[in-house]
Each structure stands twice: as C-alpha cells, then as structure tokens.
C-alpha cells in the first residue's frame, strides 16, 4: 500500500502558518487571535508537524483508497446511476469533550420530546387540544399520516434513528438547523472516514484520545432487537433498500453487513396473514424487524402510493397488527416538517417541563401573514426552504441568488405559503480545508446520530458527519451541491478511562 | 438465504468464469495464429462461434471472416457483446455490488478494483502496448477472486451458489469449445500428426488450460479422439465436463433443502444428477459411436435446462407456493402478483 511513503529528510512546508479564519465566522480549529483553541492545540500541532507536502500526499492516498474500496454514493440522471466518491477532506473537525457532553445532553432532550410529540399526535393530540401548537399547521403537514392514527409502535418509539443537523453561529454556539427523523443517511461515511483517518494519519490520531465511533451498528441492532415483537435472539432483522441505484445504497449494504443482518429489496418480502416473510432458498422465513430506508409513501402500495414498485403489499396491516417493527416508524414526517420545527422548543417545555438546552435558528413561517410579509420584504437576507424537501433541493439562498430567482421564489411563496419557511442566513462556522491553493476556511455543519431503543435514554454517537461546502464562499454543504465530508473527532476518551 | 441474493451469487460465479474463459481464448488464439499458417476462416472464426456471436459480429464488422485485432477489440471492449470481457466484468461487479454484505470485503475489492482499472485509462493503454500483459492482468484478477472466495468466505449457501454457477458455466464452456472442432475430432485426417494438426489440438487444449494436464495422462501425440475424451471424461481434470458435473452434484446435495434429514426432491437437482449420470456412462469408444456433436449439443442444452430449473426452485419460487409453505392455508384472495423488481430499479430517493 502506498499510503505511507517513507519519511524524507527535507524541509517541511508549513501547514497552517498562512491560515486566516474568516472575520465573521467561528472557526473550528483556530480562535480569532490566529492561535488554535486551547483544548485542541495538541491535535493542530501534530498536523503541523506532518508538513504540507506530506498532508497532500496522504490526501491523494485517501482518495485512491476510497475509490478502490467502493465507498461511493450514486448520483443519477435518468435510470442509470453514476457512482462517485463522497469528497473527503482529511483535516479533521475536532470538538473538545466538554463541549460535546453538553451538546449531547441537548440532543437527548430533543429526541425525548420529539418521540413524545409523535406518540401524542398519533394518539390523544393533547398538545393540539391545549393549543400549544396550531392544529391546522400540524395536521396539514405532508408527513402527517392519518392512517397511522391510533397505532402505537412497540415501546412508544417512533424515531429509532435520528440525524439532527447542527450549525454554529458566529459566536460558536451550536444551533439546530433541522431534524431528520425519517431516513437520515450518512452514518456509514462517519465510520468509513474514521477508518480512513486511522490508516492515513495514525500518528495524529492515536495520542489524541478520540472517542471511537465503531459501536454504531451494534448499538443500532441492539436497539432494534429490543423493540422486536419476538425475543431478541429469535429476531430476524433486515435492512430494506430501494436498490442499488439509490444514492445511499452503499450505506444500506454497509449497515446490513455490520449488523450481521440481511439486505433486502421489497420484492424479497411478502406478507401473509399479517405477517412478513422473506423469500429464501429454503422457503419463506418470518421477519420481525425492518430497518427500512424507503420512504413512507412507497412502503405499501395497498395503502400508500399504488405505483410503488419498491414496497411490500400488506406491510401496513402487518405493522398495524404489531407483527413487525418498522424503524423508523410510519408518519415521522410530521415531526421533522420544517414548518413544525420552530415549535420544538415548545414541545420540550410542554412534554418535559424543561428549558431547551440547544438553541435553534430563528424561523419565519410563510403560512403566517405577518411572517410572510417580513420574508417577502427581506428576501435578499433570507434562506428560503421548502418544508418537505431535503438534500439542498428546493432552496433559495437569498443573499447570493440572482434577482430573477428571488422573484420566482416570491411567487412560489404567494402560491403556497404553507410550503415554505425562511430563516436568516447563519454565518456557518468554518474549518481549515485542503484546497487547490493551500489550506483555506470552508463552511461546515454537523450531523450527529441519535439511536433510541426500548427504555432508557437515547444514545448519541460521539462524533457525527461533518459536511463541508468545498466551494469558496458557499454555505451549502449537501453532497448533491458540491459538498464533501470530514472526520469528526470528539476528544476526551482517554480522560474518561483514567477517571 | 434470500432467493434474490442466491441468484446474484450464482451469476457472480458465472460471470467471473466467463471473464476467465474469454480472456484465455483470446490470449491462446493470439499465440496460436502466430504459430501456424491457417486459412483465414480458421484463425479467429472458431472463437466467434464458441461465443455464439457470429451474426452480431458479422454485422458489426461487415465481414464474414473476422480478423485478429477487430475480434480482440470487440470481445474485450464492446458492451454490445454479452460475452465481452467488458460485459462479464461489468456484470460480475454489478452482481457483487448487490450482495456486498454477503461476499467478503476482499472479494469486493478485487472485483471493484478490477472494474475501476478496466473502465479507466490504464487498461486501455496496456491493451495497446502489451496485449499479453493485458490478458495476464485479467487472469490475475480472476485468480485473486477465486483464491479469496476459497479463503475468506463461509462455507455456506453463498459459496455454494457461486460455485454452482461457476461449474455449470465452465462445463458449458468446455463443451462449446470442443464442439467447434467436432467435425475433425474423429476424422482420420490426412494431416494427422502434421504441424498444423498438432498446433490445432494444442490450441484446443490450451483454450481449456489443459496442455500439461493432458500430457500427464497421455503419452502419445494428441489426436482428436484423445483430446475429446480428456476434455469430456477425465474425472480429475477441473475443466472437464465430467469433473464440473461431479462437483456441481456435490454442491447440489449441500443446497438441497432437507425434509426429515433427507434431501428433498428438487426438479433442478434431479435433472443435474441425471445429466451427470449420462456423461459418466460414457467411455472413449462410446463417445464416437454416435455423433459427438449431438452429445455436446445435448450437454449444452441440458445445462441451460438445469439453470432454468434452479431459477424456478431457488431464485424466484412462485409466490403462491411460498405462501403455501409459510404455514397457513393459502389466502382466499388471489395471491398478489409477483412484482419482481428488476435489478435496474428506477431510482427514487428518500434519503435526507
């Protein structure tokens, strides 16, 4: 393997000496003074010691390794997928342990409240009856499924896996940008990026006391088995994928492999007498838990979209009868609707009687007349998002968009106010990133993953997916929009073992 | 194991075998035509016939008598040919990609790395610069894949189905290769023992990696009869029809579902046993008593019958049958139609 060339005795190119953080943004590694944040100064020093040329050589080695091992995502036009590697930047994003622990508490709080909200909405709807949340707005959500009303998933868990998107504002405070409670993707890159950095930068990694991320698949299968309709040991868990042309197909296979379960497509399953079976070479075998990566409306052509070729006829009935656990549960879209998002702090107060630990971004609901007027008057300062879109699609970056595009969005908002929200643009934090001409600040976000099983608190993966907007000046980190990723290091693992 | 996955394993085995066979045919024939002066139609046409691509290629090249470079380029790069190296490698990888959680990481890396190499510049350059080295690379790829499937895979169904696919493909390949020479196998040729004739039998043996194994069993000069007998009947030669069928039957015992401790009767496996028994009943004199062409043709046909049977028994068992076996009486309502989503599912994205 050519990953690590022999050490050469030559003058090292400096790594960070010419690095200048942006004036208004918080930088993940460097303080405004130009010095590294004290808690992570050791890591920065070890990167510096490698030298610039060596860093570039290792970046190239990483790119080759990713392609060879087929760690890819699919981008498609028409019917045929093109696989690409998810661009990876080897300079890690480092989070001090102290900061992580408080962040993690905030995430656990949020997930507890969101689960209670879903159980309430598909049950007694107390929060609507008490007038805490506007009934019309909630029930008009595309993600609200009336068919699910009255069905309580096992253990009351709706959101087995959540990906909460966080950003930092100019002061370095973490804010929730959006919740992903249906099919959050990307966790496989967290594990693969880590694997890669351990191979490529062992000397930087090993003394730093970074929390391991490898436990994720075990935690997930453990949580899912704890919610199985049969005993954990008798449980057949499958991962349901739309197929190899889905953008996250690599991840579906990865998780199946690491959980020791099977990867199935809709056509591999059938339902008989409200029970789910998988077709095997030895006849039908019962299935108890489905980690599904297919959206609600495609899951059962008998109940939802009848043209779906991806789903399983009868699955809904089996689910309603409690014979199969679906993760995530059906109907979660109502809780991660972008127009419901501004009310999550109210949910936390209502269900838990606590003050929210995590801040979130000020949000204007175009459905409200006063908000809409404000948004339309200030489009050049707003980020407008369609409430049910994801992946950076259906979005207006007001400050950067040309006038015509803003005019077009104004029309769309007028035509469908419930369909849009707007937020002031947050000065996302930056992280040093290897670019064409040296190392430069690029905007990043963070998606931590939270797993909820039977009883007890949700489990937060120490780390998460750091996405980086590779284009200079860009605020959009989605892979579909030219984003890449970084490994996320949470420090403090070694201290914990000492105490 | 999941039926669809079993089918991907089976085809992965077949495509890797097909890749190997085509690369060997091209490499061997290339050397062979350098050795001897042959009429034009004997140089590359046999390869085209073995591959079953005569008509398509004639149309493509606008010539009935294809020549070296064009044939090599076609069977290496052309995605219109279902048996080109490109197609075999592409489909091997596609099948592997569908079952990455089933095969070992090492196997995936070989087949994926191989495709990345093939599909980009380096392979094209090597093909132009050093043809022999190019074919050698393909062979190494196949050897690595086979070695890893022996050393990294659990000995359970995925391994069995992969092996079954490879063996059935190989038996058919040997039969087809031999059949292209059927009219001369038994002929008391005037040219028997001549340089051309010897080169021809050597070429045939080499196409099946059989030159040295043959020499270990036969002391005399190769003749059509001795070569045919070796390639069909030799029980210890891993590319003979007999050996492949013997081994395929052994695998059949392992994959056959057991009912009260005994293998259950599966029509496909019964047909395979029957075919093996037929071939095992032959001796060298018997081979030539009737038409060897008829025998080889029937072997090829019955192998495809067995494959179709495996599809029915294992890969796509009909849903009503599955439902009946799920324990309860069949549903009163008509069973839902089997929606077998093709591998090329239309892309729909739900990921956030």
CA-CA gap between termini of chain A? 39 Å
Tally the structural domains of chain B: 2
Tell me the overall shape of chain B.
globular
Which structural class should the secondary elements of chain B be placed in? mainly alpha
Number of domains of chain A: 2
Largest sheet of chain A: 5 strands, mixed
What radius of gyration of chain A results from the CA coordinates? 23 Å
**Average pLDDT metric of chain B:** 85
Which stretches of chain B are low in confidence, meaning pLDDT under 50 for 5 or more residues running? 328-350
Number of H- or I-type helical stretches of chain A: 14
**Gyration radius over CA of chain B:** 22 Å
- First-to-last CA distance of chain B: 31 Å
Largest interface: A-B, 56 and 46 residues
Shape of chain A: globular
- For the biggest β-sheet of chain A, the strand order reads 3-23-22-19-18
Strands of the biggest beta sheet of chain B: in what spatial order?
A: 1-2
Low-pLDDT sequence parts of chain A: 76-80
Q: Brief description of this entry?
A:
The complex is a heterodimer of chains A (499) and B (352). Chain A folds into two domains: 343 residues, no CATH class; 64 residues, Dna Ligase, domain 1.
Provide an overview of this structure.
The complex is a heterodimer of chains A (499) and B (352). Chain A is an alpha+beta fold. Chain A has two domains: 92-361 and 426-498, no CATH class; 362-425, Dna Ligase, domain 1 (2-Layer Sandwich). Chain A is 29% helix and 23% strand. Chain A contains 14 helices and 23 strands. Chain A has helices at 41-50, 52-69, 97-121, 126-129, 135-139, 187-200, 202-205, 216-225, 249-259, 315-320, 344-352, 369-377, 403-415, 493-498; strands at 72-77, 80-85, 88-95, 161-168, 174-180, 237-240, 262-264, 269-272, 275-280, 283-286, 289-292, 325-327, 359-360, 364-365, 382-386, 395-397, 420-424, 430-435, 438-447, 449-451, 459-460, 465-469, 483-490. In chain A, α3 packs across α11 (344-352). The longest helix of chain A is centred in the N-terminal third of the chain and has 25 residues, at 97-121. Chain A is globular and about 70 Å long. Chain A starts with 40 loop residues before the first helix and ends with a helix. The relative contact order of chain A is 0.18. With 352 residues, chain B is mostly helical. Chain B has two domains: 1-152, no CATH class; 174-197 and 209-256 and 263-316. In chain B, a hairpin with a 2-residue loop joins β1 and β2 (262-263). In chain B, 44% of the residues are buried. The model of chain B is unreliable at 328-350 (pLDDT under 50). The interface between A and B is large, with 56 and 46 residues.
């Amino acid at each position: 393997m050519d990953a690590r060339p022999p050490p050469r005795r030559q003058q090292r190119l400096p790594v960070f000496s010419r690095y200048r953080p942006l004036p208004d943004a918080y930088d993940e590694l460097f303080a405004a003074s130009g010095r590294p944040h004290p808690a992570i100064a050791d890591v920065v020093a070890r990167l510096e010691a490698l030298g610039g040329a060596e860093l570039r050589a290792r970046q190239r080695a990483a790119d080759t390794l990713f392609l060879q091992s087929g760690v890819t995502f699919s981008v498609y036009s028409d019917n045929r997928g093109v696989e690409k590697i998810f661009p990876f930047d080897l300079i890690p994003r480092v989070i001090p342990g102290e900061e992580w622990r408080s962040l993690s508490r905030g995430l656990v709080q949020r997930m507890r409240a969101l689960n209670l909200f879903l159980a309430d909405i598909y049950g007694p709807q107390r929060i609507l009856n008490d007038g805490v949340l506007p009934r019309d707005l909630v029930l008009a959500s595309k993600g609200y499924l009336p068919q699910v009303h009255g069905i309580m998933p096992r253990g009351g868990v709706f959101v087995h896996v959540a990906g909460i998107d966080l950003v930092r504002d100019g002061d370095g405070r973490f804010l929730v940008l959006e919740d992903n409670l249906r099919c959050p993707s990307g966790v496989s890159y967290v594990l693969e990026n880590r694997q890669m950095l351990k191979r490529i930068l062992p000397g930087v990694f090993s003394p730093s006391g970074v929390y391991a991320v490898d436990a994720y698949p075990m935690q997930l299968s453990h949580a899912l088995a704890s919610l199985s309709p049969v005993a954990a040991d008798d449980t057949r868990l499958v991962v349901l994928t739309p197929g190899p042309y889905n953008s996250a197909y690599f991840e579906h296979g990865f998780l199946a492999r690491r959980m020791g379960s099977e990867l199935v497509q809709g056509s591999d399953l059938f339902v008989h007498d409200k029970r789910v079976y998988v077709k095997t070479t030895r006849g039908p075998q019962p299935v108890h838990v489905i980690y599904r990566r297919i959206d609600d409306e495609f899951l059962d052509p008998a109940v939802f979209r009848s043209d779906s070729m991806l789903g399983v006829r009868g699955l809904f009935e089996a689910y309603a009868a409690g014979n199969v656990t679906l993760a995530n549960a059906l109907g979660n879209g109502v809780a991660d609707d972008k127009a419901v998002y501004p009310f999550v702090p109210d949910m936390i107060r209502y269900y838990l009687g606590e003050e929210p630990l995590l801040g979130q971004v000020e949000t204007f609901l175009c459905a409200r007349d006063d908000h809409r007027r404000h948004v339309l008057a200030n489009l050049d300062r707003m980020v407008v998002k369609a409430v049910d879109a994801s992946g950076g699609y259906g979005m207006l970056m007001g400050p950067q968009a040309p006038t015509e595009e803003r005019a077009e969005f104004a029309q769309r908002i007028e035509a469908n106010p419930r369909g849009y929200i707007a937020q002031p643009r947050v000065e996302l934090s930056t992280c040093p990133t290897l670019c064409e001409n040296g190392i430069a600040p690029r905007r990043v976000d963070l998606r931590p993953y939270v797993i909820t099983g039977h009883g007890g608190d949700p489990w937060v993966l120490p780390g998460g997916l750091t996405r980086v907007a590779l284009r200079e000046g860009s605020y959009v980190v989605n892979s579909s929009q030219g984003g890449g990723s970084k490994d996320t290091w949470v420090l403090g693992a070694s201290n914990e073992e000492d105490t | 194991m999941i039926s669809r996955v079993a089918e991907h394993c089976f085809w992965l085995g077949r495509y890797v075998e097909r890749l190997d066979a085509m690369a060997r045919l091209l490499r061997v024939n290339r050397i062979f035509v350098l050795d001897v002066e042959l009429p034009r139609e004997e140089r590359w046409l046999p390869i085209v016939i073995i591959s079953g691509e005569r008509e398509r290629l004639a149309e493509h090249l606008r010539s009935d008598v294809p020549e070296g470079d064009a044939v090599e380029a076609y069977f290496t790069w052309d995605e219109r040919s279902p048996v080109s190296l490109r197609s075999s490698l592409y489909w091997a990888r596609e099948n592997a990609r569908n079952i990455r959680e089933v095969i070992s990481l090492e196997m995936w890396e070989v087949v994926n790395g191989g495709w990345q190499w093939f599909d980009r510049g380096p392979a094209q350059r090597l093909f132009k610069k050093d043809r022999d080295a190019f074919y050698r690379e393909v062979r190494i790829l196949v050897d690595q894949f086979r070695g890893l499937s022996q050393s990294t895979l659990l000995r359970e169904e995925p391994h069995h189905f992969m092996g079954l696919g490879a063996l059935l493909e190989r038996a058919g390949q040997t039969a087809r290769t031999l059949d292209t020479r059927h009219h001369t196998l038994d002929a008391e040729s005037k040219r028997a023992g001549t340089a051309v004739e010897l080169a021809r039998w050597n070429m045939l043996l080499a196409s099946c990696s059989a030159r040295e194994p043959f020499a270990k069993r036969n002391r005399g000069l190769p003749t059509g009869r001795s070569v045919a007998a070796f390639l069909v009947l030799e029980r210890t030669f891993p590319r003979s029809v007999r050996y492949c069928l013997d081994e395929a039957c052994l695998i059949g015992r392992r994959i056959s579902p057991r009912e009260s401790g005994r293998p259950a009767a599966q029509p496909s496996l019964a047909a395979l046993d029957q075919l093996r028994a037929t071939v095992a009943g032959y001796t060298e004199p018997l081979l030539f008593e009737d038409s060897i062409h008829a025998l080889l043709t029937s072997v090829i046909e019955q192998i495809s019958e067995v494959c179709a049977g495996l599809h029915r028994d294992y890969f796509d068992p009909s849903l009503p049958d599955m439902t009946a076996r799920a324990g309860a009486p069949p549903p009163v309502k008509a069973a839902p139609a089997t929606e077998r989503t093709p591998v090329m599912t239309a892309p729909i994205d739900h990921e956030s």
